[in-house]
Automatic annotation (TrEMBL):
<dbReference type="Pfam" id="PF16296">
    <property type="entry name" value="TM_PBP2_N"/>
</dbReference>
<dbReference type="InterPro" id="IPR035906">
    <property type="entry name" value="MetI-like_sf"/>
</dbReference>
<keyword id="KW-1133">Transmembrane helix</keyword>
<comment type="function">
    <text>Part of the ABC transporter complex MalEFGK involved in maltose/maltodextrin import. Probably responsible for the translocation of the substrate across the membrane.</text>
</comment>
<dbReference type="InterPro" id="IPR000515">
    <property type="entry name" value="MetI-like"/>
</dbReference>
<feature type="region of interest" description="Disordered">
    <location>
        <begin position="1"/>
        <end position="33"/>
    </location>
</feature>
<feature type="compositionally biased region" description="Basic and acidic residues">
    <location>
        <begin position="21"/>
        <end position="33"/>
    </location>
</feature>
<dbReference type="InterPro" id="IPR032550">
    <property type="entry name" value="TM_PBP2_N"/>
</dbReference>
<feature type="domain" description="ABC transmembrane type-1">
    <location>
        <begin position="317"/>
        <end position="535"/>
    </location>
</feature>
<keyword id="KW-1003">Cell membrane</keyword>
<feature type="transmembrane region" description="Helical">
    <location>
        <begin position="514"/>
        <end position="536"/>
    </location>
</feature>
<dbReference type="InterPro" id="IPR035277">
    <property type="entry name" value="MalF_N"/>
</dbReference>
<feature type="transmembrane region" description="Helical">
    <location>
        <begin position="317"/>
        <end position="340"/>
    </location>
</feature>
<feature type="transmembrane region" description="Helical">
    <location>
        <begin position="449"/>
        <end position="468"/>
    </location>
</feature>
<feature type="compositionally biased region" description="Low complexity">
    <location>
        <begin position="1"/>
        <end position="11"/>
    </location>
</feature>
<keyword id="KW-0812">Transmembrane</keyword>
<dbReference type="Pfam" id="PF00528">
    <property type="entry name" value="BPD_transp_1"/>
</dbReference>
Amino acid sequence: MTGAGPATQAPPRGPGGAPGRGRDPDKARRTVRDDRPITLTGLTVKVVLLGLVAGIALWAAFPLIEAEAWVGLGILVATTAGLFYLYLSRRHIPAKYLVPGTLFLIAFQVFPVLYTASTAFTNFGDGHRGSKDEAIVAIQSSSVVQVPGSIEYALSVATTGDAATGPLVFLVTDPTTGTVSAGNADGLEPLDAGNVTVNSAGKVTAADGYTVLNAGQASARSQEITEFAVPTEGGAIRSAGLSRAYEGKATRAYDAGCDCVRDADSGKVWTADPERGAFVAADGERLLQGWRVNVGLSNFTRVLTEPSISGPFLETLVWNFAFAVGSVFVTFALGLLCALALHSPRVRGRTLYRVLLILPYAMPSFAMLLVWRDMFNTDFGLVNNLFGLDVDWMGQPWSARAAVVLVQLWLGYPYMFLVATGALQAIPRELTEATSVDGATPWQSFRRITLPLLLVALSPLLISSFAYNFNNFNAIYLVTEGGPFPADNPSVGATDLLITYTYRLAFGAAGAQFGFAAAISIFIFTLVAVISAISFRRSRQQEEVYA
């Protein structure tokens, strides 16, 4: 009789007891696949969405090819191929849900932040939008004057898009040859005679691919038409009214030898300054047309060192903090007071009172801010008439600041009332009852038990409210527009926040300074991020104490 040999492990069995292949359980957990059958609805949705992705990719590919942006084209192709692989495969189920959110995060959060940060290190703005070559063309075109014997054309003003906002195009008819050409910022391009309609006076009345403006539409854009110029060799075509144009001669020309611009009439010379992206004369005069260059940290140092900016900036920063902290404090205090008053079961009609208290929260803040602005009017405002006051609310710095805080109190306390009501209902009544048994007064019970537990629950909301009010553009711009403004500095008002100051720099009448505005935006982002991080850290420590 032979002894039993060593035990052997039976091979794994597949379905029906058939031997199956050994599987690595860790690998099985790592590879997630969906073996459910695809329904007709699911298949239709997948086809439509992937078709939309393919269409968007094709639409984006042609401009990239035209601009020879091969890196961008490669990213586009790789992203599109990755999406098709992901959603045509049954594997990688978690990624199917994570990828869309990640792409939207990159497109609408990460990319704008990075673009803003990169803009902060440039002089991008009015007069510094394009390249150096474009600046030279603009300088020469703007100096064009009509000279005796210059060619005059019959002119029709057109656009390549909407009549009110589309890019301007000059449709000109040569008086000698009858040739019709289309002129834009890049130059003249002859048009096929079969694609245009010309009247007896030589004016173009219709052209394929262009919208010819009528007299009213052209008059509405007369300022743009007057400033518009079509560059030609040695000069440019400019308008002389709305029906005639002339080809003039440029009085200023670029000299590549000295990298400068010379004025033929006065002999003045403006030399290129690569650090400032502009042509500058020996006396310091700078031509308006410049080009975009990297200026390093100059936008940031300008905020702190330039006297005309650093003083108003620091004053605005102090008021910005005061407004954000004050708005959070007063709205939280009033909202908590209302929540505590209606938390008592002895109050009758609590539901009705709560509905009435949240009415300001249900109304559009945009409209309410405009209403409050009129209520603070000195002459016919409700506030002065109701209380018999004669206060120029918007004319004095401190009264205007008080007005915007009061407006923010009315708009913000319903939100604090709602969150405080919810947090109070989550606190066990046994805690407050135990303190009363121990002989604590209602104030001691509130200060030692209720308020700390409320702050643990509401700290993240208070931090987010601070961040919101730190950049509360609407509350300032719609009520005071940042005013009142000092007589010697119309760019910064007494109630301006950094965000409204940045807006005025970027889009103000004095000219856009996008690079400088982006630098201030980085300051705002850094301040809010640091304060929020510190506050969140302290709130976590508080949670550990009361856990």
